[in-house]
Amino acid sequence: MLEVQQLAVNYRGVCGLDRISFRIEPGQLVGIVGPNGAGKSTMLKAMLGLIPAVGGKVSYCTCPLHQQLERVAYVPQRSQIDWDYPITVWNVVMMARTRQLGWFRRPGRAAQEIVKAALERVEMLPLKGRRIGELSGGQQQRVFLARALAQQADLFLFDEPFTGVDKKTEAMMLEVFAELRSHGKILLVSSHDWGQMLNQLDRLLLLNQRLIADGSPQFVMTPEHLHQAYGVPMQAPFHAEEPTFFC
């Protein structure tokens, strides 16, 4: 189980996250939604210790998450990646295994087979020698999805993975997410544009610094909750139902 308890972040006295709490069981695909500046990326980074929290704790299988980051695959927003860095597709994905093996050990056949399988899964093996900056946005995102797969993690965090990708890549990512969920993995995915993924989510977290609603997409995406989050009247994509989770 992934458990976040009273997680809080401040930026020079300004609240970034206000005591966020939730639990996620294995085999769940959970979305994060909210307006720009709501704290979606902040929450993912704070969970991993990439930015300091002023309060709260994050645990996985009852142990602090920051002590077992080898079990976490994190794909950041595209804007945080240096696409001009001269590295090939193969080496980007191999970085997942380098982290497991140590920086001074050469990857063996087993590691190479894992990387090959990950690239084949996202249909990027034919471009393994291409530099990452030469690819389209969808191809680049598939490479980073392959790197996450090659890490063979238990917990997957994706920050805005659908930004700038084509429909084929989006469909492939949704297929991979479903496969990971079926294998008992935990997936936490933030996005502005959900589209058909809303129907595939087990749960949805609606944020605006605080956790406004937590539950099924049908329960969370109501006019009342959306108004609280976005500050303006909004039409809901679902009819309301009885809550399954709420904070």
UniProtKB/TrEMBL annotation:
Keyword list, A-Z: ATP-binding, Nucleotide-binding, Transport
Domain of life of the native organism: Bacteria
PROSITE patterns, per the entry: ABC_TRANSPORTER_1, ABC_TRANSPORTER_2
Secretion signal span: none
Entry-linked CDD domains: ABC_Metallic_Cations
GO MF terms held by the record: ATP binding; ATP hydrolysis activity
Domain ABC transporter stretches: 2-234
Pfam family, one: ABC_tran
InterPro entries: AAA+_ATPase, ABC_transporter-like_ATP-bd, ABC_transporter-like_CS, Metal_Ion_Import_ABC, P-loop_NTPase
Protein family according to the UniProt entry: Belongs to the ABC transporter superfamily.
The name this protein goes by in its record: ABC transporter ATP-binding protein
